[in-house]
Each structure stands twice: as structure tokens, then as C-alpha cells.
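Task card 7
Instruction: Convert sequence to C-alpha cells.
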Amino acid sequence: MKLLAFDTSTEILRVAVQHGTQDALEHVGPGAAQASATLIPAIQELLRRAGLRLADLDAIVFGRGPGSFTGLRTAASVAQGLAFGAGVRVLGIDTLLAVAEDARQRRGTEQVVALLDARMDQVYSGAYQHQDGVWRQRGEIVLGAPEVVRVPAGWVLAGNGFGVYGERLPAAAARIEAAPTASALLRLAPALLAAGGGGDAASATPLYIRDKVAQTTEERAALRSAPPRPS
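Output:
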């Protein structure tokens, strides 16, 4: 397949282009606030190197969330605009699923609790199991303090945020540094598209788990006055 994939849900911008059986071309750079300025030039450069036009693509794939609000809006709006202009199908993939796939590619693990730093002293987490060549989500995506993360026996914890929340995450679980890479999105996309996933440009919408990105003055004061967490 001819696919363009990108993720701007974290502080790292990731873009990849797949042209049939050729090795995927990838770009990795600063994300966050810079993603809105650098994403489209990175896409254009990779398409040029691959010898593709937007209209040649079978689909545009993007990490739909959860993640940075600004990053998710950037990814969805760019996917929507490019898909509309080129008349190409668009497919949003959960970023935690991409984390699980990145962990499988790195270590071969097929039972993953995927984790992403949600800031504000919280993390996103979700459980995924790879069976018969297909990922299946087990339960809902959870947003909460690191202490609420649960890892079943024999599963691994994969994602980011270990340096920030390490001691507050389940100590017994094996850990893998993993990310919602564009190459993981490329690997996930064919099966999802074959199963009927994706749609027209209007379907390019973010997945928001948190509906609140700022605390009130009272909430910030309460946090400052709260007793420290036990170590």
C-alpha cells in the first residue's frame, strides 16, 4: 500500500511514508508547539523522496489520541485538510495502540499495558493483547494518577513517563520504553483499513480523554496546600 502516517501527540514529531514494498521513509523531529510549523514540510519532503503525490496515497494515517491537545488538533486538522484536497481516505489510530505495537516490534511482547504521560500529574493507560495477528483492546482507556495503573501478571508496561513517574507505577511489571511511532501506525493501518476502518476527510477527528486542560485558581491553591504524598 501507499501510506502516509504521522503522530504529533507527544513532544516528538514522527512522520513516515510507505511506498509498496520499499523500506518506509521516516522523519523524527521536535513536536509540541513546533509541530504545526514543521509537519507539512516534513510530509512534503518524504513524499518527494518516495516519488509520490498525495493523490497517489491509499490512505492518510494519523495518531488520533490520547495525547497533547495541541498536538492532536494539529494532526487531525492536517489529516483532514490533506485528505479533503487529495480525495484520499483518512484513518485515525489510537496512540496507545501504536505504543503497544511499538513495544511488540521492539521486544516481541503481545500483552501490553500502554502508557503515555498526560501531564498534570496523570497518565493515559490502556491494555492491549495481540492474538492471531490482531490487536484487541481489553477494557477502556484510563486517565488518572500513576498509582491507578494496573498491569496483569505476565503483561508488560510500555510507553513513556517512567523517568517522571517510575516509583509510582507498578514495581513488579517489566517496562519497555515505547512510543506512538509513525512506523507503528504504518504496520497497524493495512489490517484496520481492510476491516473497514477509515473514512472521508470529515472523519479525521481527535480522541480526547481529558476534557479539561487547565486548573482553576482554587484547584491550584488546593494542590499547593495539600500534604506531600508518602514516599
